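Dock EPU; give full complex structure.
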Amino acid sequence: MDYVRIRGGRALCGEISVSGSKNACLPILAACLLTKDECVIENVPHLSDTRLMLKILQLVGAHVQYQSKHTVSIRAESVDPHAPYELVKQMRASVCLMGAFLGRTQTSDVSIPGGCVIGQRPIDLHIKGFNKLGCKIEIKNGNLCIDGRDMHGERIFLGGRNGSTVTGTANILMAALGAKGTTTIECAAYEPEIIDLCHFLQKLGAVITGVGTSTLTIEGGHELHGCRYRIIGDRMEAGTFICAGLMTRGKLKILNNTPNINSVVYDKLNDIGANVYEDADGTIFVDGSNCELRSSEVVTMPYPGFPTDLQAQFCALLTQANGISIVTERVYPSRFMHVPELNRMGAGIMIEGEHAIIHGVTSQRLIGAQLMASDLRASAALFLAGLCAEGETIVSRVYHLDRGYERFDEKLRSLGADITRESA
Ligand code: EPU
């Protein structure tokens, strides 16, 4: 099993390019099943999760071919709408196959995903949406078997206890394309990744209005055709590099970022006194060389609120800010597995329910330690802490990171980090 060794304390400097967005790419790859024509998807990040999604697409009948490193052609002349547990258990995002299967074949048989380390991740809202569309649903051998042959347009309120649902919205959007009539989703998620999915579906010929708002209207029953589409840049990877630049007191220029989708993050960075600027093309300039960071309050929320997928990285960043910061996690209230590991490096963080209370000190470096990654974003936070720590940090279970960051250690090395990947 791979682990990473980081010798901290080097300022990261130079230019780096973010990859395509994982969370935009996964539902878009699934959505390629909606047409029998060829779809060519550009800016596909090379990640274990995208490779797994492509493998599932092949297993259900699609012809998948890489045209170049980040461009994939997918042609699904026929689709067998069945995704078994062995595959689904490896990646929760495979739930969005349900919507794609329903939109294309009006049936779906996909294993129900199990528990998740970042918190309870039910799919009750997805099921509510399918029911509203007129689907008949049965649970058999751990699979959600959906008969959508009578699907018809409906008004569906998709909000839950913690707000809107991202993959739930993706699922109902795609299923509604196979329903007769018009569907309206209220309290739809409008994360940039959902907007990207809508733009892709529109390019396939889908009629969707309200894109970029919490009310989406979808006209079902239109014939969809192939297209060429470029995935947006990964705003979580961009945010992670920003933290890396600031925490190591370096200077970074971040390229291939999609503009105007990270406003809340810049607002917080401005609050803490960080020198970060995004130009009209989306290029981000980070100057951590002279900044004394201040503490702040961060509350995660659905878009356009602060993203839960940057919460762990900001916890790491705020250990380097003067004063007491409070980070409140409202999307996954117990998503704090990175905290005990950061504390093993000398960070002063206390957890109180859904709050992390961070006693930050600009003048005190974290101390390197042996750490265990528990999930994707927690891994990123541990890398960041290791980069600014004194001495050596070893992060094991780095496969979590490989699910969502393309060549992360290699990219960090190109910016001057002393980081090596080794096998146990
Ligand atoms: N929820 C329900 N019922 C449902 C669905 C969700 O109560 O049926 C709750 C969840 O428990 C959570 C909240 O609603 O409290 C939001 O969950 P959501 O459904 O939006 O999450 P998701 O679609 O499963 C995606 C991302 C996650 C990201 C969340 C929130 C993908 C593939 N995954 O998950 O990304 O944290 O949205 O923005 O898009 C990651 O990349 O590290 C990651 C976990």
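Observed: The longest helix spans residues 192-204.
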